[in-house]
Specification:
- The protein is an alpha+beta fold and about 230 residues long.
- The protein has a domain at about 120-230: Fusion Protein Consisting Of Minor Coat Protein, Glycine Rich Linker, Tola, And A His Tag, Chain: A, Domain 2 (2-Layer Sandwich), CATH 3.30.1150.
- Helices cover about 55% and strands about 15% of the residues.
- It has 8 helices and 4 strands, in the order H-H-H-H-H-E-H-E-E-H-E-H.
- The protein has helices at about 1-45, 55-60, 65-80, 85-95, 110-120, 130-155, 190-200, 225-230, and strands spanning about 120-125, 165-170, 175-185, 215-225.
- The chain has a 4-stranded antiparallel β-sheet with strand order 1-4-2-3.
- Helix 6 packs across helix 7 (about 190-200).
- It holds the Pfam family TonB_2.
């Protein structure tokens, strides 16, 4: 009897433990069953969000060819159409252009070349007998007469003289030529006439106010070009 009662006592102590363990296992199983569908649902929801990175180059920036094509279309659309000039506009443009300079071979000959080929006027005795104010006026006459002579003789077809010529010019106070005389011939009648015509057409300045007379007689010597080369 004692053994039987001891067995029942020991069995009674194990039943509550087994019952508690069973309840704990069933509770854990129930919790697992409740939580697992939610986790699975969350995983299913997250798994449906996918990203395709195969075309990431296209998403980062447009291709160079497409940008260049777009730029060409933009430039073509903005660039205005250029109209061809009409014949009247061409004529106006041609007339508005400055004339081109003459070629070098058409340039006017220099004073030195004309002096060598046609001769030149110079003073007689360098005006040593003249006063200082009249001497300056006399040298001015030499310069003006040479300019006139080279302008006329440079365009003439008359041959040069054979020797130097002597002339005298009589001037009024206002610079007007009163008389021109040939004192010594150049050896060529045609050349002598060319000398007289050039002197009579020369524009000369008026006499200085300090000059007392009404007329001024100025002698000149025309150096022959052949004499310069000899």
């Amino acid at each position: 009897m004692e053994h039987h009662s001891a067995f029942h006592r020991h069995t009674g102590e194990r039943l509550p433990r087994a019952l508690l363990l069973s309840l704990a296992l069933h509770g854990a199983l129930a919790a697992t069953i409740l939580v697992l569908p939610r986790a699975q649902s969350t995983l299913n929801t997250l798994s449906t969000v996918t990203v395709d990175l195969s075309d990431r180059n296209d998403l980062s920036a447009p291709s160079t060819s497409r940008v260049a094509a777009h730029d060409r279309r933009s430039v073509t659309a903005v660039r205005p159409a250029m109209a061809l000039p009409t014949p009247a506009e061409k004529i106006v443009e041609e007339q508005s252009q400055p004339p081109s300079p003459p070629p070098a071979n058409e340039a006017k000959p220099s004073s030195l070349s004309l002096g060598m080929s046609r001769g030149f006027f110079r003073s007689l005795a360098d005006g040593e007998t003249l006063r200082s104010d009249i001497k300056e006026y006399y040298f001015t006459l030499v310069q003006r007469i040479n300019e006139q002579w080279w302008s006329v003789a440079g365009q003439a077809e008359t041959g040069p003289g054979k020797r130097e010529a002597l002339v005298t010019v009589v001037l009024k106070r206002n610079g007007e030529i009163f008389d021109v005389r040939l004192l010594k011939s150049s050896g060529s009648p045609e050349y002598d006439r060319l000398i007289l015509n050039a002197l009579q057409a020369a524009p000369l300045p008026p006499l200085p106010d300090s000059y007392p007379g009404e007329f001024f007689q100025a002698p000149f010597r025309l150096m022959a070009p052949l004499g310069l080369l000899s």
